[in-house]
Structures are given as C-alpha cells and as structure tokens.
Amino acid sequence: MSLYSGPACAYSHRVRLVLAEKGISVEIIDVEPGEVPPEDLADLNPYGEAPTLVDRDLALYDARVVCEYLDERFPHPPLMPVDPVSRAKARLVISRIERDWYRLLDRLERGDARDTAGVRRELAEGLAASDEVFAAGTPFFLSDELTMMDCTLAPLLWRLPHYGVELPAEAEGVSAYAERLFARDGFRRSLSDVERAMRGL
Fold this sequence. Notes:
Layout: E1 2-5, H1 10-22, E2 27-30, H2 39-44, E3 52-55, E4 58-61, H3 63-73, H4 84-110, H5 116-129, H6 131-134, H7 148-159, H8 172-182, H9 185-190, H10 193-198
Parallel strand pairs: 1-2
Antiparallel strand pairs: 1-3, 3-4
Helix pairs in contact: 1-3, 1-7, 4-5, 4-7
C-alpha cells in the first residue's frame, strides 16, 4: 500500500493520521506543491493531486473517501460508528467541518485571500463559537473514543499558529481538546517533517 501525500497538505495529513491511529504500514510518496508530480500519479488520479492511496489494483483519492475506505478495510479500531444513524450524523459533522473551517484554511494555505486578517478572524471566531461542543466533557469530539471527526479536526487545529490564527481566550475548550489530540502517539507519528516545523519541533 502506498500514499501520495503532500507534506504540508491538511487533507493528506488526515489520511496519514488515520493510517497512524490504525497502525497500518504504508509507503509515503511525497508530492511537493509547485513541483512536477510523479509521472504515475496522473494515471492513478485524474486530478494528479495528493492524497492518493494505492492498494493493490485500487487507486483512491479525496481524503474523505480514502479515510472511510481505510476504516472499512482495517476495521480495528473503528473510527466510524456501526449503526447507520450515528454514521450519517458523523458524516454530517465532517461535512460541516469541511464547509465551515477547511474552506477558510484552504484560503490561508493558497495565500489567495484578499482579506487574510478577516479569514483568520472568521476561522478563530467560528471555532470559538463551538467551544462548548469541544468542552462537552468527552475526551474526544462528541465521543469517548477517537473517531473520524477527530482525524478531520486535528490537522486543521495543528496548522492554526502557522497561519497566524489565534484562538481567543473563550476558546479554551478547543485548545484543551487540541492538546489532547496532539499528545497522542498516533498523531505524532502522522506528522511530516514540514508539519513538525510548523510548530518548531
């Protein structure tokens, strides 16, 4: 199994985190932004981008598709609920995280935001507005166990200081939640050298 992964890409990080938390061995092939991608990547993924997972004759792209495949292919520990209703609710939460927060992170990563300060503020305020959910009394996001929702949130939260996003004091629940995730062995193993450098590690 191999993964074409962007060392600074939050979407690739999501996949690497799922792999690390499940203890799945994989060959990581770095795809650097701005550089010519590996020749075979265009054959595997019509968009020629990371993350792209290759498992035997199967090639998958889109972080959410890849992560759900890995969860089903390697079911222990499970990262998605078993029952259809809870699974649908988890997917909806992940969709909202992508729409509300990853959309803003994407703008900061591309550096094409006309009002960078405004984007930073919107992201910080959006997270702070959800602080009571992060501080709901469970060690993970709406759960006693690590789930795909956490694997979606952790790469985003890790990048906040790198892009100059400062959480306000009223977001202490978000900050405490983030530190719990960052302390996990799986999270540490998921980091690329570029991502470690984002936090001076």
